[in-house]
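Quick log. Single chain, no ligands specified.
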Amino acid sequence: MGQVRNETCEFIDRELKALFPGDYEIECRQDTYTQDYIIWISAHESVQPFRITREEFLEDDWRDNIRQAVSEIGNS
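-> predicted structure:
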């Protein structure tokens, strides 16, 4: 069990960096056990992990969920 980086992770990174230019450091890894994507977002000297489930990604529901989560970080 662990996390790997692949082409989908690179795609997710690019998408999120376009949504949040310059304000956050973003890195994606895929969990080898669940196949979910773990997003590490650094902002305001803290690092927050977020999970995008495989189903969320395939159904293209993940951007709004991450946008909501990041807005909560910004309000902290």
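The beta strands are 3-4, 25-31, 37-43, 46-52.
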